[in-house]
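User: I'm new to structure prediction. If I give you an amino acid sequence, what do you actually give back? Let's try with this one:
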Amino acid sequence: MSDTNRRFEKVALPHLSAAYNLARWLTRNDHDAEDMVQEAYLRAFKFFDSFRGDDGRAWLLAIVRNTCYTWLKQNRIQELHDSFDEEAHAEADSGSDPQTFMLQNADKKLLDRALEALPLEFREILIMRELEDLSYKEIATVAGIPLGTVMSRLARARNMLRASLERNMQEK
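Assistant: Good question. You get back a string of structure tokens that encode the predicted 3D arrangement of the chain. For your 172 residues, that looks like this:
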């Protein structure tokens, strides 16, 4: 095995689970996520010489994200253009912590449905922060957006998720 192969495995393989998780939430399909991760790893290996050793996880997740977005543009263009409807997602009481709310009031299926219902640009930020525990700076790097945009999207995503969960809990 070459030195490049060993270095790539050391940098990329520890993040396979995070790569799949992000791809799964972006594509909303297990099979498509597997395909996207495979394609992303092939791209990452092909361009591994350009990796400068900064943050392997953020570098790889940016490739996974870009691979998913390219695929979505070719296969599910409508999903990329779904926008946030202010009236349909009226802001819930901002005094409660969404993580606490989720743990106390929502079962996994309800939470999964609420996450999947979020528009893509909000869902991806929430997944990277809450499920993958990326810092705001890492999210900004992965998504290619300013830090302030990360913070505002995360706040809106949390409010949208909270409102969705509260609506679903009332319907039960």
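You can read the tokens as a compact description of the fold. Here is one thing that stands out. The CA atoms of residues 40 and 66 lie 8 Å apart.
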